[in-house]
């Protein structure tokens, strides 16, 4: 520092001190903070320091972070300066302000030229951490105090390098301590965002703190100058936390007129391909301006005060953005050329991930309040439109030569040269070959629109195979009208040019889908023996190409070269190409001769035709006749000369027809005698049939003559030969011929030939001369001939016309009693005088047939009403018009697209009045065609109609209360306000009409939609949502009570809730934070359930914390209740996501399924889950460096099972902890405690590879949420998506991910022969992915629309061979192999020989009349039979005791499966009432509860509905129901079924088939249930004799049971009471110490009652859980204050206010004491004092 500088420094220090005094005044004290706190990122000052270093021409910089300070140093060649503080205004303007002046100023920078700026406001950010920054450089050493006051320092900083400028920032801030500063700055240093990229001089940045060393570097590998643009290939060394990595990019830069640099950069991956980055706009360093671009950009923007945003509405910035957009567009060409030069294509299909393709991502540039980056979208798209930039396989094309394939496979199969021939454009090339148009259209609307605009046209398989004419269509995805260019398609010439090897590939491609195969069979795609292109079938679908046959010529046959390839030969055969047959000879050799005009030997052809006809099946005859009947191969004679003609022109030469047509000699008769002699006598009957089917007529035909003029048209029918024979009779006056004609006309009348249409001539005219026709009718020529010509003979023998006759005057030569005579008389208008004047005429009509009498009676009615034939025709036309109107209205309703109101016109007030009007006809005073309705009724109907909505709507009105909130009692009822009552009724009616209208619209729309169309899916989803409550604000609520609560062994916070009072819905697994109320006597406690898992009739619940249940004695819990609402959002979210696809309504989602699906077909016990874990998921993870796989399952349980299996098969290798993710709710505590369980806060993006397992219900809506960001499951780009247990998943849930995502592969695992999904709408009942792709065979698995790969798991590990063989043969074609052998069967030691085999059939009696044998049905359609339920209960109990007695210490699992829930409920609750031994675990349920489960012994109970139908829809005739039932057994299977005397037993086709399969083995036995009753009880009718069954009465009073089983049934419920008298023991049961079940009152011991409570105790009779006399003891407070004995919670059912209530009590069973709280006793004292005593129940059930 020289003296001049020292003088300036001292003056500057003084000046700044004075300013500091001002800043410290109260009025401006906040100004300093406003400057310092400009940056929201408090460590942003690091960038400011680097800016200053670069501006000082530094090439390197370093940071040293210590616990109490930050040190920054750089080697800049420009050092600090100081200028005269008195001249700062002038110096600032001249850009000569000293650095020390600037650094101690506020908003007075020394920026020059294009520099970033040195020591402006940005430097002030350091004061967020320090109050005294120290600065050391070769010239000056000073510190800054009081924010702006420079203070000279005498000592240099130790260790400063001689060429460095060094800054030291002590952490002495008053409000931010050193630890916070250290944390902020260390984090910032490790995560600087490309700090060197846009700096000019600085190349290296080092930093160090603690034991961390970090580095940022920039290395320019290559520089290319391109017409004013500098292209630099840069390597940037970056820090990622504590790790270093390199970023590779191409940076393109230009200078503006002020030499300011602006740039765009494109990053590359390790393989050298462009990759997208999500970076904000840079102004040397990152701003917070989001660009929505996938590349990086920089310009010297004018920034906001905080330097974090770009100022909007500023011309300079708008100009910079425009220049950057032009540079980005030009960079596309630069990247293309650089890539081609280096043989590493930079512009390829992935460019669409880099460039902007969605215009909606950018704001409107006219909005000056926001910076718009739309010019980038516009400029780059324009560049692609005018430049050869569109990527092809190995080149680039202009849009006019770019063709986009519907699927990538097209571009792989058809080369560009072949494409040119197909499109007639030799420059044509496939564009974007890896981006299939169909998938892009499904998943990315914006990208689809972008590419569609760029290419010339798109091509799918139909256009390639069939060709296409130029056409226009409305693109619903884009919302615009577009054209499809003409495509010639594959022609014969094209095929003839191709190599044989390519044709083999082509045929293989065609064979992959049924659609391709179907549309190609009539195209010239094959080569014949001469190398010419040939089709397999012609336009008539007749085979014209054949497989070669030795020594047979005259046919086109397939080229031998094509037949050498096995796959091609199989394809050719599969489409129906075969060796020529007789029919083929007819079509290809014989019939063409009839069009060539050559001489033909028709007789030999006739015999070929006839012989083939005789061999045809019934199905083939019609097709064959249609094939030949139009050809002239039949012989007839005319004037003795033989001619050939077609059958339809000829008549059979019967005597009647020959005589009939004598007057028309031109009539052709077939030469029948010649043909009879050809075929022989034995085949004459086939000959007549053959000729008749060909069209040879055996009665006169009717033909039509028409005049189709423009102004006048007429149409009239004639009977062939009728006019001629009438004229012949009239001319010859031959009465015999007249009688013959009468008989022929009667036959015509009887066969309805003489109908209205024959007797009327239709006349149509255009009165307006333009459009509308007027139709009129008049008598036809035939009618005139019949009634006016004199062909009839009267009783005087004279020939007269019909008009001149009455019936009585008709000659007796005419038979008027045959069937057609009455009709003929009516046609001729011949009747007796006065015949119709009196309907009650007593004329003898005994000679008439019943049909004739009916016709006459009807004619009399018409005549009495003065209705003539014209009136009837008018009525017919009226009906036709009404029907047409009805159909049109229905079509309009179904179309759903005519208006926003669903195509229905709103009914206005006038229309309503018209609908129900009662205006009268002026003359008759009768309503005009309307039913007369009481006026009061019509007024009400009108009022209701006006209240209905414009159309049916899903947003239904709230419930309308029936009652007002009134204050009343039973003695003083409130008055009824009838006006309110009427208003409520009208509102209800209108709301109901709205609902009906809406439901009917949906139903009609679903019925009219094509199955699997987009409209079909969306409509059914909406209907499903309504049924499930989703479209209704009142979500369905479920309340379930459980009678028993246990802790699951081996767990800390998992409870098992048993014996529910109703069905447990599946959606319980999708809920979280469910309240569970535990009832313990008169106390309750509410605890929170974290997650639930259903298993048949139990619910496993995991509590949110262990403490909630630690202090509860679960044995004291008498019941547990759950009240929960269904997760309404699940289906609604799926419906919304489906709606976002925006496909056309008729878009077929079956035909457009993706090709990359694989199926794993896993029958029962084949280890499907193990296969997925071991053979699919683990190899994917081991063989992939970066891979994301998603596994979707139907339930949390199945998700947990798969995760556990992955962990198990990994063995000691725990690396799965690094990639396995269990997302969502888990019911498995081991999984929950492991690292694989992740909640929403986990950042899935941090795993470079992962397998994420969750339920499929979560896929449409759920997400990870790390640090507030939402990472949706359906937004992640998964490489693999695996769907497990697919048969159980509703179709829409699977189809959604298939169309939403485009992974490398979908893997769908399951078994179509097991449980089907549960849906509430019958229109897609039983539909799943397997029905959609037609995968319905294990033996020959075929699929549509592609032949997907199906991996068959053929080894079952569960069952012994005898059982496995049953379900293998039943459902899987008998091809399953068995891992177990017979020796592995678990021995069943039951003491006495019970005759039990591996396979057992037990048959029970069924009767339609005897109560316990009768099959019944509950209201909800679930069937049950009392006898089979009680029998199964008793036999399972008997077997359980025998097992326990003979196998001590061993655990056997017995499963009882009943297809109907009512039957399963009954058996389950019966078994609950029994104290089964601990050695046996018995589970009861329907098939849904046993899916995926197995037991040692299975009882499959096949009770039937009340009537056994042959319908395939009957539950027991469904393959999956039976298959699951019989395939759960490991060692022993019992099939319990109706006996052979049961009515319609053979209709149980599948059950009987299982019986037959069992009987085909050597390991079966059959039992009759009465025989087993005799074994168990010594009485074959024990159950019948000890069961009393009746229906529920309106009032029921229960005394002590008189029978062991008392059954009361009604439509909604079944009650079964079991009562065993004292000492009554099932024979097989071991004696145990039992409390006598019946005790008299004198046997009670009063001393057992606590002394304080004895006075209030009463004794009373008890039945139910305890039988006999007991003490009922009221108590106050807590029971534990009176007794320490163990009590059991039970219930007393009592009536109160007409409703049954459950009164909770505590029972000491051995003392026969029932404790009840005093409050409850007072409330129910009357019911507890009944002389019959009380009923005691162990549970609510």
Condensed summary:
The protein is 31% helix and 21% strand. It has 52 helices and 68 strands. The longest helix is centred in the middle third of the chain and has 31 residues, at 978-1008.
Could you describe the 3D structure shown?
With 1741 residues, this protein is α/β, with parallel strands linked by helices. It is 31% helix and 21% strand. The protein contains 52 helices and 68 strands. The chain has a twelve-stranded mixed sheet, sandwiched between helices. α34 runs antiparallel to α35 (1014-1028). It is globular and about 160 Å long. It starts with a helix and ends in a 5-residue tail after the last strand. Residues 111-118, 834-844, 895-912, 914-931, 950-959, 961-971, 1030-1036 and 1622-1637 have low confidence and may be disordered.
Outline type: globular
The tally of helices reads: 52
Measured on Cα atoms, how large is the radius of gyration? 47 Å
Quaternary:
single chain
Q: How can the largest sheet be summarized?
A: 12 strands, mixed
Mean pLDDT: 84
In the sheet with the most strands, the strands line up as 5-4-3-6-2-1-7-8-9-10-11-14
State the separation between the terminal residues, measured CA to CA: 100 Å
Percent of residues in helical segments? 25-40%
Instruction: Count the E strands.
Output: 68
User: Which spans have pLDDT < 50 for at least 5 consecutive residues?
Assistant: 111-118, 834-844, 895-912, 914-931, 950-959, 961-971, 1030-1036, 1622-1637
Strand content: 15-25%
Structural category: alpha/beta
């Amino acid at each position: 520092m020289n003296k001049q500088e020292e003088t300036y420094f001292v003056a500057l220090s003084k000046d700044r001190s004075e300013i500091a005094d001002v800043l410290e005044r109260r009025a401006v004290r906040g100004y300093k903070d406003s400057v310092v706190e400009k940056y929201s990122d408090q460590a942003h000052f690091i960038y400011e320091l680097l800016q200053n270093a670069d501006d000082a021409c530094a090439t390197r910089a370093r940071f040293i972070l210590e616990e109490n300070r930050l040190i920054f140093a750089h080697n800049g060649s420009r050092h600090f300066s100081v200028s005269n503080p008195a001249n700062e205004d002038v110096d600032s303007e001249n850009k000569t302000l000293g650095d020390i002046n600037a650094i101690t100023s506020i908003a007075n920078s020394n920026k020059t030229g294009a520099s970033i700026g040195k020591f402006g406001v940005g430097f002030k950010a350091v004061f967020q951490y320090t109050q005294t920054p120290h600065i050391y450089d070769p010239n000056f050493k000073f510190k800054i105090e009081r924010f702006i006051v420079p203070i000279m320092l005498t000592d240099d900083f130790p260790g400063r390098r001689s060429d460095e400028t060094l800054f030291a920032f002590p952490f002495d801030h008053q409000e931010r301590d050193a630890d916070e500063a250290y944390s902020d700055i260390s984090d910032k240093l490790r995560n600087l965002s490309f700090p060197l990229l846009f700096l000019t001089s600085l190349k290296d940045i080092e930093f160090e703190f603690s034991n961390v060393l970090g580095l940022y570097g920039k290395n320019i590998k290559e520089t290319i100058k391109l017409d004013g643009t500098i292209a630099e290939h840069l390597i940037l060394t970056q820090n990622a936390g504590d790790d270093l990595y390199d970023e590779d990019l191409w940076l393109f830069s230009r200078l503006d007129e002020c030499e300011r640099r602006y740039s765009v950069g494109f990053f590359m991956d390790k393989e050298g391909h462009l990759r997208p980055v999500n970076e904000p706009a840079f102004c040397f360093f990152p701003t917070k301006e989001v660009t929505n671009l996938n590349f990086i950009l920089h310009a010297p923007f004018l920034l906001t005060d905080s330097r974090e945003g770009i100022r909007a509405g500023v011309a300079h910035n708008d100009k910079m953005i425009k220049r950057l957009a032009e540079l980005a567009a030009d960079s596309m060409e630069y990247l293309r050329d650089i890539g081609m030069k280096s043989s590493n294509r930079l512009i390829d299909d992935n460019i669409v991930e880099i460039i902007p393709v969605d215009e909606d991502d950018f704001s409107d540039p006219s909005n000056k309040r926001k910076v718009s980056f739309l010019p980038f979208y516009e400029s780059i798209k324009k560049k692609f439109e005018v430049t050869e930039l569109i990527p092809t396989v190995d080149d680039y094309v202009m849009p006019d030569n770019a063709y986009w394939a519907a699927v990538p496979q097209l571009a792989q199969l058809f080369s560009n040269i072949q494409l040119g021939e197909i499109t007639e454009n030799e420059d044509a090339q496939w564009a974007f070959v890896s981006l299939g148009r169909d998938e892009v259209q499904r998943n990315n609307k914006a990208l689809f629109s972008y590419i569609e605009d760029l290419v010339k046209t798109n091509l799918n398989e139909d256009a390639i195979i069939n060709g296409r004419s130029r056409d226009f269509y409305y693109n619903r995805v884009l919302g615009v009208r577009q054209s499809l260019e003409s495509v010639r398609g594959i022609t014969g010439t094209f095929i003839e040019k191709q190599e044989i090897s390519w044709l083999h590939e082509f045929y293989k491609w065609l064979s992959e889908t049924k659609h391709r195969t179907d549309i190609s069979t009539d195209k010239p795609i094959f080569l014949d023996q001469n190398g010419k292109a040939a089709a397999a079938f012609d336009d008539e679908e007749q085979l014209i190409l054949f497989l070669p046959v030795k020594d047979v010529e005259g046919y086109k046959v397939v080229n031998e070269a094509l037949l050498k390839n096995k796959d091609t030969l199989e394809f050719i055969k599969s489409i129906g190409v075969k060796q020529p047959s007789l029919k083929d000879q007819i079509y290809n050799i014989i019939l063409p001769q009839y069009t060539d005009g050559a001489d033909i030997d028709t007789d030999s052809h006739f015999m070929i035709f006839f012989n083939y006809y005789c061999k045809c099946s019934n199905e083939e005859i019609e097709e064959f006749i249609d094939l030949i009947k139009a050809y002239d191969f039949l012989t007839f004679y005319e004037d003795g000369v033989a001619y050939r003609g077609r059958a339809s022109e000829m008549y059979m030469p019967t005597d009647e027809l020959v005589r009939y047509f004598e007057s028309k000699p031109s009539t052709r008769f077939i030469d029948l005698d010649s043909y009879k002699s050809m075929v022989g006598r034995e085949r004459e009957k086939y000959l007549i049939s053959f000729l008749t089917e060909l069209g040879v007529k055996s009665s006169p035909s009717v033909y039509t003559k028409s005049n189709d003029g423009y102004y006048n048209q007429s149409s009239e029918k004639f009977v062939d030969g009728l006019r001629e024979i009438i004229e012949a009779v009239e001319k010859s006056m031959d009465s015999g011929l007249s009688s013959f004609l009468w008989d022929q006309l009667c036959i015509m009348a009887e066969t309805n030939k003489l109908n209205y249409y024959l007797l009327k001539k239709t006349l149509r005219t255009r009165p307006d001369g333009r459009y509308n026709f007027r139709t009129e009718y008049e008598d036809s020529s035939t009618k005139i001939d019949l009634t006016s010509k004199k062909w009839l003979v009267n009783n005087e023998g004279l020939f007269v016309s019909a008009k001149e006759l009455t019936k009585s005057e008709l000659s007796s030569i005419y038979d008027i009693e045959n069937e057609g005579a009455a009709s003929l008389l009516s046609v001729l208008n011949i009747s007796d005088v006065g015949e119709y004047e009196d309907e009650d005429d007593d004329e003898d009509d005994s000679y008439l047939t019943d049909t004739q009498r009916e016709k006459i009676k009807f004619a009399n009615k018409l005549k009495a009403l003065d209705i003539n034939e014209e009136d009837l025709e008018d009525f017919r036309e009226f009906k036709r018009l009404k029907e047409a109107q009805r159909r049109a209205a229905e079509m309009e309703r179904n179309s759903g697209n005519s208006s926003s109101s669903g195509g229905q016109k709103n009914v206005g007030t006038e229309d309503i009045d018209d609908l129900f009007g009662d205006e009268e006809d002026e003359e008759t005073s009768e309503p005009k065609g309307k039913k007369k309705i009481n006026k009061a009724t019509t007024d009400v109907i009108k009022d209701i109609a006006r209240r209905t909505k414009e159309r049916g709507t899903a947003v239904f009105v709230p419930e309308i209360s029936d009652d007002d909130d009134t204050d009343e009692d039973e003695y003083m009822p409130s008055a009824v306000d009838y006006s309110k009552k009427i208003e409520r009724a009208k509102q209800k009616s209108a709301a109901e009409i709205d609902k009906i209208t809406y439901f009917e619209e949906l139903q009609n729309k679903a019925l009219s939609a094509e199955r699997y169309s987009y409209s079909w899916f969306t409509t059914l989803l909406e209907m499903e949502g309504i049924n499930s409550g989703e479209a209704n604000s009142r979500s369905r609520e479920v309340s379930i009570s459980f009678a028993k609560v246990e802790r699951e062994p081996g767990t800390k916070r998992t409870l098992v809730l048993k014996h529910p009072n109703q069905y447990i819905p599946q959606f319980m697994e999708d809920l979280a934070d469910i309240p569970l109320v535990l009832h313990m006597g008169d106390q309750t406690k509410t605890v929170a359930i974290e997650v639930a898992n259903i298993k048949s009739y139990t619910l496993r619940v995991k509590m949110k914390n262990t403490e909630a249940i630690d202090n509860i004695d679960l044995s004291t819990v008498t019941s547990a209740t759950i009240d929960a609402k269904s997760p309404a959002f699940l289906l609604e979210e799926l419906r919304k996501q489906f709606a976002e696809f925006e496909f056309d309504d008729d878009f077929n989602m079956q035909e457009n399924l993706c090709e990359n699906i694989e199926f794993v077909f896993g029958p029962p016990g084949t280890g499907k889950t193990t296969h997925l874990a071991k053979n699919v998921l683990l190899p994917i993870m081991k063989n992939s460096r970066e891979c994301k796989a998603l596994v979707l399952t139907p339930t949390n349980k199945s998700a947990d099972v798969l995760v556990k299996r992955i962990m198990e098969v990994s063995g000691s290798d725990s690396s799965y902890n690094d990639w396995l993710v269990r997302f969502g709710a888990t019911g498995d505590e081991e999984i929950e405690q492991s690292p694989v369980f992740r909640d929403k806060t986990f950042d899935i993006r941090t795993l470079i590879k992962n397998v994420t397992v969750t339920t499929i219900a979560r896929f449409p809506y759920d997400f990870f949420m790390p640090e507030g960001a939402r990472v949706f499951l359906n937004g992640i780009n998964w490489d693999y998506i695996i769907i497990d247990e697919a048969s159980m998943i509703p179709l829409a849930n699977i189809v959604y991910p298939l169309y939403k995502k485009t992974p490398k592969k979908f893997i769908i695992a399951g078994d179509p022969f097991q449980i089907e999904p549960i849906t509430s709408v019958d229109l897609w009942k039983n539909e799943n992915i397997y029905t959609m792709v037609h995968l319905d065979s294990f033996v020959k698995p075929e699929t549509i629309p592609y032949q997907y790969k199906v991996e068959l798991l053929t080894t079952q590990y569960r069952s012994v061979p005898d059982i496995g063989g049953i379900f293998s043969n039943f459902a899987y074609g008998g091809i399953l192999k068995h891992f177990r052998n017979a020796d592995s069967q678990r021995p069943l030691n039951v003491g006495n020989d019970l005759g039990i085999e591996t396979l057992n059939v037990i048959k029970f009696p069924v009767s339609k009349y005897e109560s316990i044998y009768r099959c019944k049905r509950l209201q909800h359609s679930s069937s049950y039979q009392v006898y089979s339920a009680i029998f199964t209960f008793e036999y399972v109990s008997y077997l359980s005791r025998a097992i326990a007695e003979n196998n001590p210490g061993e655990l056997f699992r017995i499963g009882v499966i009943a297809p109907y829930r009512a039957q399963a409920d009954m058996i389950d609750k019966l078994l609950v009432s029994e104290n089964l031994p601990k050695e046996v675990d018995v589970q009861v349920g329907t098939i849904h509860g046993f899916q995926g489960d197995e037991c040692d012994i299975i009882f499959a109970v096949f009770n039937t509905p009340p009537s056994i139908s042959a319908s395939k829809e009957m539950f027991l005739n469904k393959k999956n129901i039976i298959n699951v039932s019989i395939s759960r057994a490991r060692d022993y299977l019992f099939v319990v079924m109706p006996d052979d005397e049961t009515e319609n037993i053979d209709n149980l086709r599948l059950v009987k088939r299982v019986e037959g399969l069992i009987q085909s083995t050597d390991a079966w036995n059959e039992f009759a249930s009465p025989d087993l009753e005799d074994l168990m009880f010594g009485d074959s009718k024990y159950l019948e004799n000890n069961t009393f069954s009746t229906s529920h009465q309106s009032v029921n009073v229960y005394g002590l049971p008189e029978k062991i089983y008392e059954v009361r049934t009604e439509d909604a419920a079944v009650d079964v009471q079991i009562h065993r008298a004292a000492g009554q023991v099932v024979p097989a049961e071991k004696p145990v110490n039992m409390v006598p079940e019946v005790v008299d009152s004198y046997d009670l011991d009063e001393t057992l009652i606590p002394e304080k409570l004895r006075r209030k105790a009463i004794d009373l009779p008890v039945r139910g859980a305890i039988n006999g006399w007991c003490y009922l003891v009221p108590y106050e407070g807590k029971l534990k204050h009176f007794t320490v004995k163990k009590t059991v919670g039970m219930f007393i059912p009592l009536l109160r206010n007409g409703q049954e209530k459950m009164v909770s009590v505590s029972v000491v069973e051995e003392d026969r004491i029932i404790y009840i709280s005093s409050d409850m006793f007072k409330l129910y004292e009357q019911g507890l004092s009944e002389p019959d005593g009380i009923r005691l129940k162990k549970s609510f059930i």
